[in-house]
Backbone:
């Protein structure tokens, strides 16, 4: 069996370039808005709420309806199916009915001949809203017990008693902000109505199946009437899971009601106002510990801002909770996680999905303990590494130690410490700092049944192969990785594997391309499909060669009997043609489900993850104590990718995730005014990292010789989300530079400067 | 008089049909023409996914945001898009080979910024400041750029900027013509590079009936170096001003500051006069003009006025222009010999960000102590302005940390609070920027990106 733990790989494992790289660079790669437009196309635009909370008394569409080019204005009464776009729960409206719940909520859809006409008319629709006081903070949501996701508590031992008995006790409270995905390609869908209520939807989505379901629900048709396609996205990062679905449903609704193709492309401001973001979190903690820095008791609360509806908050809370202790253990603990309802846009999936937020807890706790004891934080880390998670799943502390040690070694930790001390002693106002971070990130969807995937492989009679699977391409290199897997199975050049757009018509009932599972799940499914075909083809070859089927060798595009003395050979194409003549099917589906995972959602126990991936980082920063400005001077990252399916792609994922994480933790701040109106609605006010923000020394390494222990694809490990957490090292370096333990995030110049001022003026 | 827009696209001369709206953005037009390489990522000139290059007859390559340009202002210009490089070109190939694309949506814009950079040179971060990538973390893009070379492609033939009119879009070539138009069309939108007003086209999808675009007015073009200082024509771009500062050591303290103003794309189109014309409260140039005592030359048919910039700015988005007047030029006096000139900016992101607080200082000395200090702040009030109490606090003292900390205590601002910072932060940061002057004056490393 080619599980790859010892098998020599020829195609999988190679550092191949992204399949579309050159097409991206020449502008030939077609994104949805670049596709030729169908005849009779109409354009849609959304009417968005100008207020955060209120009773929707009336919508005045008269003036807008009379504007040039306007074909139709769609309100909730026009929906033939259900006005419900909830991905997991129920009762989440696409268009507001009686209540407005957040600034930027969709109220109506305007359809017009041109996009400009639709946008102008949408701006002319006025809403009569009786304002109600909005809930705008997690604190207020907690006080009102307005749960989106009720508090769930992981308990071990008696935390209160352990805290009471501990030689030292500390407590704290801090906040982490949300994050806008800022995919460069905004939300977009093109819906083309067909015969008998058919609807073909081109959608920039991570989850074609969910788009299919939501479109069908809104239109009131069976799933088989709706086909959803996606060739590529211009970035997604979790923002094109549930949010892509309702954008597509709005386009499909307009197409159904007008009988014409409709495109809905959100302007950036509308995209940032109307679609969800990473959940902000509030943390409150109490810790008890001994002189050696061993944690004895921990009582902690992690409260997320769910926004106005459930969306996928349950999964985010699950992951925050399961990652709250990260790779550390506390014998007695009581850890509660929840999400509160506020009048913010409904927060959603974002790379890491609550994991990065969860892992922040222990960083403040460990730094507080280290500062209190006058110890180095890495000593405190070492004193608390765990071999089991609080919910009972095994960790590998040897890998935790190894990645951290290697990151520190790569960074030249000791020498850097001395260098920094000398610099800080010499300069009047600039301060350098050094920080470390290590984490264990669990891989699998938190909901067990989502861990499944399908693939469809055709071999044509010229030997070319067409590959389809349920995963979507958002830039992460999934298509090339899965193609490498298929090339490996058939031992043909990867160029003979033709890629195709993801379509619900080819692969049904798929899961989102999310949770870092894209290549694990779809790669295995494609592996299964290709293996089925290879076995069928081997039978035909065996007959042709007159040898036992076990002796048939597929190697470098040639098929031959492995036994000595024969010089018979077939090319892959010749064998394909032979199979066709022998009337053997050259098309196969493949299916995969992740083995051995289970979770008891009541007891909060189980083994919900197929495996953990380990990563560590060391970051060095420079801080201007006069202004609070700072930059990362160097970062050394070590990430465990098992036996990487494609080191070039994985390297790009690690670097990109790290920089995106830096943005979340340092420069990217969502700002609402006192009325709950979001005021950071474009790149002029919402600042993601630019090229100069990337550390001039960015040293990234895949952990060597660490083939996965679980039965993963060729012993590889997932890479999409985990390295985002490595940016936490930058926050820790800022703590070091500023001499702070407590730091609300993002660590903007303002937060650093005002914290420094508070220290200076004393308690 | 021309009545059809003529331009050169990817080396081929094009004459647009007479019915072509002159206020259609370049991006919309290109994409409708089937050139979909340039993409809309934000429609506000910040993300760079729509970057194309204006090719100068002198070989210069100016990257611009196609979302902010309208066709009328491009009359007589040569434009190159990613399609005009072709799949064999070394710039796109270098990016592909360096694994510098992931989702690829930003890539055509990055290709065009990089292609301009291969000719213009300089700091690669400066070249990329106007291009956002959300996937790669930029490291492979920078690696690819380090390996690129100028393709040596010949510039397009020069086109003489002539007077033109496309319906209600006026493109005068002389000051007399511009003033005459202004006199009869006081309601016309006065357009320079469009980096601020262009949002009305790109984001608000407006098509104003009357536009007076002054980019081709001969008397307004260029930056002239005079013994007394710089004459910055109203139609001269920030890029031209920056180039003049780079060429003369007296202006060296302004270089890092101006290089952070917008991006190459924004500086290639945007003008100082445009900032004064819209009286933006956050224009980064304004504190510099105030500290140096710049004078704004304005004209109407009846005559010319010279207005000190401090009097020109009369309030939030208000200035001293009367309806028939146009800004002709800004006169920037050369700093006196031995004076200390500094410009400081604090923003959330170093590049391509609007400042939360900015400070420009011009300080002269006598016997080792401050004779006169001119301290102008941006972001601290409804408009950029000088701070007399802080200036007075420095007079007669050596320019050291103690004196500057004292000046910080004398600040007479009650700043606003918004997404760029709270009032408390702005005050504290303004004090910090003042204290930074001591480090600069002493020749010490003074900031994190030094």
Residues:
């Amino acid at each position: 069996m080619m599980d790859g733990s010892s098998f020599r790989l020829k195609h999988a494992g190679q550092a191949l370039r992204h399949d579309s790289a050159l097409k991206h660079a020449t502008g030939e790669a077609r994104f949805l808005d670049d596709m030729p437009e169908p005849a009779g196309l109409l354009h849609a635009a959304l009417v968005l709420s100008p207020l955060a909370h209120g009773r929707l008394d009336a919508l005045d569409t008269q003036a807008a309806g009379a504007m040039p080019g306007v074909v139709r204005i769609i309100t909730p009464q026009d929906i033939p199916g259900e006005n419900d776009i909830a991905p997991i729960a129920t009762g989440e409206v696409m268009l507001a009915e009686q209540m407005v719940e957040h600034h930027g909520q969709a109220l109506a859809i305007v359809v017009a001949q041109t996009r400009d006409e639709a946008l102008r008319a949408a701006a002319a629709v006025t809403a009569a809203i009786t304002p109600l006081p909005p809930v705008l903070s997690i604190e207020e949501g907690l006080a009102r017990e307005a749960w989106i996701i009720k508090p769930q508590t992981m308990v071990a031992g008696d935390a209160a008693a352990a805290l009471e008995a501990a030689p030292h006790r500390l407590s704290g409270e801090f906040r982490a902000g949300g994050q806008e995905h800022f995919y460069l390609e905004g939300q977009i869908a093109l819906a083309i109505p067909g015969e008998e209520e058919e609807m073909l939807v081109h959608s920039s989505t991570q989850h074609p199946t969910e788009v299919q379901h939501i479109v069908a629900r809104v239109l009131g048709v069976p799933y088989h009437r709706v086909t959803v396609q996606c060739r590529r996205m211009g970035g997604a990062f979790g923002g094109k899971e549930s949010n892509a679905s309702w954008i597509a449903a709005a386009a499909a609704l307009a197409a159904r009601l007008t009988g014409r193709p409709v495109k809905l492309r959100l302007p950036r401001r509308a995209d940032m106002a109307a679609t969800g973001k990473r959940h902000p979190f509030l943390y409150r903690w109490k810790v008890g510990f001994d002189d050696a820095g061993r944690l004895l008791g921990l009582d902690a609360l992690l409260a997320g801002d769910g926004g106005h509806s459930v969306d996928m908050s349950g999964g985010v809370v699950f992951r925050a909770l399961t990652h709250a202790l990260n790779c550390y253990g506390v014998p007695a603990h009581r850890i509660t996680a929840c999400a509160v309802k506020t009048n913010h846009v409904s927060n959603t999936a974002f790379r890491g999905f609550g994991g990065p937020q969860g892992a922040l807890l222990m960083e403040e706790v460990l730094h507080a303990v280290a500062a209190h004891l006058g110890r180095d934080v890495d000593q405190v880390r070492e004193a608390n590494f765990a071999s089991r998670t609080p919910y009972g799943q095994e960790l590998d502390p040897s890998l935790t130690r190894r990645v951290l040690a290697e990151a520190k070694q790569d960074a030249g930790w000791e020498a850097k410490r001395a260098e920094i001390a000398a610099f800080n002693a010499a300069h009047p106002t600039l301060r350098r700092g050094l920080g470390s971070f290590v984490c264990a990130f669990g891989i699998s969807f938190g909901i067990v049944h989502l861990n499944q995937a399908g693939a469809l492989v055709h071999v044509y009679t010229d030997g070319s192969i067409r590959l389809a699977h349920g995963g979507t391409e958002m830039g992460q290199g999934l298509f090339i990785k899965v193609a490498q897997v298929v090339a490996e199975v058939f031992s043909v050049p990867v160029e003979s594997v033709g890629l195709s757009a993801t379509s619900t018509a080819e692969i049904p009932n798929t899961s989102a391309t999310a949770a870092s599972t894209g290549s694990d799940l779809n790669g295995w499914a494609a592996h299964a499909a290709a293996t089925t075909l290879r076995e069928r083809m081997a039978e035909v070859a065996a007959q042709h060669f007159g040898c036992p089927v076990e002796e048939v060798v597929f190697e470098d595009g040639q098929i031959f009997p492995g036994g000595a003395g024969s010089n018979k050979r077939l090319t892959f194409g010749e064998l394909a043609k032979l199979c066709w003549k022998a009337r053997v099917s050259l098309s196969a589906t493949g299916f995969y489900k992740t083995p051995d995972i289970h979770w008891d959602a009541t007891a909060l126990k189980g083994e919900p993850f197929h495996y953990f991936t380990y990563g560590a980082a060391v970051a060095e920063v420079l801080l201007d104590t006069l202004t609070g400005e700072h930059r990362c001077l160097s970062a050394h990252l070590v990430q465990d990718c098992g036996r990487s399916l494609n080191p070039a792609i994985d390297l790009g994922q690690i670097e990109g995730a790290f920089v995106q994480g830096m943005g979340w933790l340092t420069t990217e701040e969502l700002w609402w005014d006192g009325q709950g109106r979001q005021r950071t609605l474009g790149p002029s006010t919402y600042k993601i990292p630019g090229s100069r923000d990337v550390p001039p020394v960015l040293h990234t390494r895949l952990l060597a010789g660490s083939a996965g222990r679980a039965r993963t694809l060729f012993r590889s490990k997932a890479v999409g989300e985990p390295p985002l957490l490595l940016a936490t090292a930058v926050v820790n370096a800022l703590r070091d530079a500023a001499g702070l333990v407590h730091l609300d995030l993002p660590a903007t110049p303002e937060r650093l400067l005002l914290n420094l001022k508070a220290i200076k003026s004393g308690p | 008089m021309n009545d059809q827009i003529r331009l050169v696209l990817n080396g081929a001369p094009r004459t647009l049909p007479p019915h072509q709206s002159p206020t259609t953005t370049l991006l919309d037009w290109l994409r409708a023409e089937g050139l979909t390489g340039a993409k809309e990522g934000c429609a506000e000139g910040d993300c760079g996914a729509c970057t194309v290059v204006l090719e100068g007859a002198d070989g210069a390559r100016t990257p611009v945001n196609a979302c902010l340009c309208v066709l009328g202002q491009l009359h007589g210009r040569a434009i190159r898009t990613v399609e005009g490089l072709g799949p064999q070109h070394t710039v796109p190939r270098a990016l592909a080979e360096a694994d510098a694309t992931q989702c690829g949506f930003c890539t055509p814009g990055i290709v065009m910024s990089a292609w301009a950079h291969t000719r213009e040179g300089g700091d690669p971060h400066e070249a990329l400041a106007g291009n956002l990538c959300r996937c790669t973390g930029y490291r492979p893009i920078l690696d690819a750029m380090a390996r690129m070379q100028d393709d040596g492609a010949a510039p397009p033939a020069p086109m003489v900027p002539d007077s033109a009119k496309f319906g209600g879009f006026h493109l005068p070539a002389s000051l007399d013509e511009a003033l005459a138009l202004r006199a009869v069309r006081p309601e016309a939108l006065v357009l320079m590079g469009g980096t601020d007003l262009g949002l009305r086209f790109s984001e608000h999808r407006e098509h104003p009936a009357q536009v007076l675009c002054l980019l081709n007015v001969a008397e307004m073009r260029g930056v002239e170096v005079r013994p007394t200082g710089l004459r910055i024509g109203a139609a001269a771009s920030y890029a031209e001003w920056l180039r003049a500062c780079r060429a003369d050591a007296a202006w060296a303290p302004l270089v890092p500051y101006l290089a952070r103003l917008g991006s190459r794309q924004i500086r290639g189109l945007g003008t100082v006069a445009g900032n004064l014309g819209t009286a933006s409260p956050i224009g980064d140039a304004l504190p510099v003009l105030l500290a140096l005592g710049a004078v704004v030359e304005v004209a109407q048919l009846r005559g010319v006025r010279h207005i000190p910039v401090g009097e020109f700015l009369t309030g939030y988005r208000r200035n001293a222009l009367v309806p028939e007047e146009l800004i002709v030029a800004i006169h920037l006096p050369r700093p006196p010999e031995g004076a200390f000139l500094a410009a400081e900016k604090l923003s959330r992101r170093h590049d391509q960000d609007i400042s939360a607080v900015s400070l420009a200082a011009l300080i002269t000395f006598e016997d080792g102590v401050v004779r006169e200090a001119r301290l102008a702040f941006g972001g601290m009030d409804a408009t950029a302005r000088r701070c007399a109490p802080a200036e007075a606090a420095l007079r007669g003292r050596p320019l050291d940390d103690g004196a500057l900390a004292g000046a910080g205590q004398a600040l007479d601002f009650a700043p606003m609070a918004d997404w760029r910072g709270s009032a408390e932060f702005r005050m504290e940061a303004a004090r910090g920027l003042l204290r930074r002057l001591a480090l600069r004056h002493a020749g010490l490393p003074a900031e994190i990106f030094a």
Remarks:
- Chain A touches chain B through 85 residues (CB under 8 Å).
- The mean pLDDT of chain A is 97.
- The first helix of chain A runs from residue 21 to 26.
